[in-house]
## 1
Amino acid sequence: MVNRVLMWAAASPRLQRQVTQNPVARRAAHRFVAGERLDEALDAAAALASRGIGSILDLLGEGVTDLSGAGAAVAEYEAAAKAIAARGLDARISIKLSQLGQTVDRDACVANLTEILDQAAAVGVPVEIDMEDSSLVPDTVALFRDAATAHPQTRLAVQAALRRTPVDLEALASLRPRVRLVKGAYAEPLEHAHQGKAEIRAQYRYLTDWLFEHGSDPAFGTHDDELVAHAHQAAARAGKGPQEYEFQFLYGIRRDLQQELVDSGHRVRVYIPFGSAWYPYLTRRMAERPANLLFFLRALVGR
Ligand SMILES: Cc1cc2nc3c(=O)[nH]c(=O)nc-3n(C[C@H](O)[C@H](O)[C@H](O)COP(=O)(O)OP(=O)(O)OC[C@H]3O[C@@H](n4cnc5c(N)ncnc54)[C@H](O)[C@@H]3O)c2cc1C
């Protein structure tokens, strides 16, 4: 129920206006979003670096409706890549193709993606591609194939919840793809996605094993202790040491586990969202964990 209300809230422009214009709400959002400006995200990355943790910078905003919005995102990502290099941070950038105009003009999206990949490679910053809702998956996989052929360090997020993901990965196997395995953050119909926790976990475990066998440098984007434990076991079976795979966390979530993994010699990277379009991101995180909603509401009423 809470989940449905939050999914509705995520899509409501009116509520979005009211919440994002509220200065107290903006401050409360800081628990999960580094800030609205690039320099705030870079400062967050530097603070993580001092704890031995790498970063992934994500400019919030998705589903742009015109190409000027996409152009602005390209400029921000290029600035982010240059600033990461200038500050010598162990950080990457992660992009959403819908933010680059995928649903407005595919050719323009391809040109935008190519430009970001080339500019980021020129300053030595790897690029990751987020996975969005199921309607965008086939095209995102196709564009990743081209991106990874030109820039092999490019990483693609894939969703364990989606029924099609094993087939998508088999089709990419010849590339030995770099993948970030996640459960999937979008509400999807039964025909496209597993719905139950146990089924999603089962597919996540299957895909974890697959990635150790057929992928390169696998990354696991999860806060789920059971799946973290499975990744350790799969790594041991594949003869991989703690530095040969990576755990990725969302900013502000499971800081205890992040530190525990670093202390035991594992590679950890935190995904740092920044930018003014923080509202849909925040509501998705609250839908995943209603305790976050309580945290946010308490901050709003100053308790
Ligand atoms: C680095 C990273 C990148 C991601 N990229 C994508 C992407 O490209 N596309 C996509 O669809 N999804 C993406 N996701 C989101 C992902 O799909 C899940 O929605 C999200 O990670 C929650 O699933 P979980 O595996 O952490 O397990 P859950 O079962 O949701 O959580 C397990 C435990 O982790 C803790 N936890 C989980 N979520 C929260 C939270 N919001 N607040 C506080 N504690 C929490 C709780 O202790 C919980 O019991 C990404 C996630 C990460 C970590």
## 2
Amino acid sequence: MIIKMMGKADGDNYTLDDMFVSSAAQREGDGQEEERMRSRAVGESRRLNASMEKCRLCFSSPELHKHLVVAIGSKRVNLRVFPVAVQVYLSLPEGVSMTEGHCRICPLQHHCAATGLDEDVWSEMQLFRRTLVKMFEAQEMDCVFMETHMNPRRRQHMALECLPLPRELGDMAPIYFKKAILDCDEEWAMNKKVVDLSSKDIRHAVPRGLPYFAVDFGLQGGFAHVIENEQKFPHYFGKEVVGGMMDLEPRRWRKMIRENFDDQRKKVLQFAQWWKPYDCTKAPEDG
Ligand SMILES: [Zn+2]
């Protein structure tokens, strides 16, 4: 009986000590965890600052090629419907365009992916998208909108690329893209390979922070793919699909081909002419 009680007491002592030790360890752990979180946050903001300083797409950046900008923000959305700051701009690529009319919609501020965009930035991008679809429709062209979000840790500035293509090819684009996505990356993917965007946009289809590729066809929702292996997924994936459909040379999309200032100016003037009658940044009564 006594032995039994001692045994029990010992057991309790042991448990008490153990509890004490573990809660002390916990306190220490909390401190360490806090410190870790703090240094991670500092590291992240330092990385973000570093990527913003060199960013060629931030509107406030000295690196931005302002002469390639075709349109900025939307007065109609900003002033008349809801008073928010201008959020996005439309510009042409600094290298040789992959197809005539190749352009991109970018947020003015340093945002890294559509999955992290606020509603106001997103809705202004969609306004530009609708305008481009209308503009290319008048030229009997379809267009695809693509976003490639890779290496999330590098925090690169996002761009929604728009590539116009002849209507008969545009009709085929969903088939080509679906096949290319099914064949890309890892054969045994952890995530569903093709995410359907016909009834939900990318922000509701792919969790924030994951690398992905997304394509939409004109005003129709297209597909997204969560990139499983960034080594096996080329950054020019979407352009390669369009380039293949159009029978272009691979050098047109693999690397940027430099373009001189005069040629850049020419394509901007041409694009501005197409854009003017549809310009969504002008209130209807302005024009
Ligand atoms: Zn930026």
